[in-house]
TrEMBL record:
<dbReference type="InterPro" id="IPR023393">
    <property type="entry name" value="START-like_dom_sf"/>
</dbReference>
<feature type="domain" description="Activator of Hsp90 ATPase homologue 1/2-like C-terminal">
    <location>
        <begin position="12"/>
        <end position="69"/>
    </location>
</feature>
<protein>
    <submittedName>
        <fullName>ATPase</fullName>
    </submittedName>
</protein>
<dbReference type="InterPro" id="IPR013538">
    <property type="entry name" value="ASHA1/2-like_C"/>
</dbReference>
<comment type="similarity">
    <text>Belongs to the AHA1 family.</text>
</comment>
<dbReference type="Pfam" id="PF08327">
    <property type="entry name" value="AHSA1"/>
</dbReference>
Length: 145
């Protein structure tokens, strides 16, 4: 697995950026880059389970490893979800199970820097290097509205 980092500077306070990231309505907007109809099913609390799902209720299940409101949200990805049901680990899933996706926000004078570090398996490296900057551009646009 390779650790990649994506960063965007946003002309908005970190509280607004945080809300754009994790509010259901805006979350669905910026994650359409990855999958049309995407959503997250969770209570957004540290230690809680989260399902990242597409319009067909397929996706992955993860844990919220760390959550410090307006500053840090870390996910530990566990496995696959099909039709809303967590699937047993198979060989393909074992290649990325335990990987992390970490969001960090820092603010100076009303300008927020959002950094995302994530573990990516080689076959998805090109995909995420292309789509993640697009997703962060949408976060920026929504937060600066």
């Amino acid at each position: 697995m390779k650790k990649e980092k994506f960063t965007v500077v946003i002309g908005a306070p970190k509280e607004k950026v945080w809300n754009v990231l994790w509010n259901d309505d805006t979350y669905r907007k910026w994650t359409t880059v990855f999958s049309e109809g995407s959503k997250a099913v969770t209570d957004w609390k540290e230690g809680s389970k989260i399902h990242f799902l597409d319009a067909n209720n397929d996706g992955m299940n993860s844990l919220i490893d760390k959550c410090i409101e307006n500053e840090v949200m870390n996910f530990k990805h566990i496995g696959v979800v099909k039709n809303g049901v967590e699937q047993p680990l198979d060989e393909a899933t074992k290649n990325w199970s335990g990987s992390s996706e970490n969001y960090a926000l820092s603010e100076t004078d009303g300008i927020t820097t959002l950094s995302v570090e994530m573990d990516i398996i080689p076959e998805y490296l090109d995909y995420f290097n292309k789509t993640f900057p697009l997703a962060l551009d949408l976060v920026k646009k929504l937060a600066e509205e």
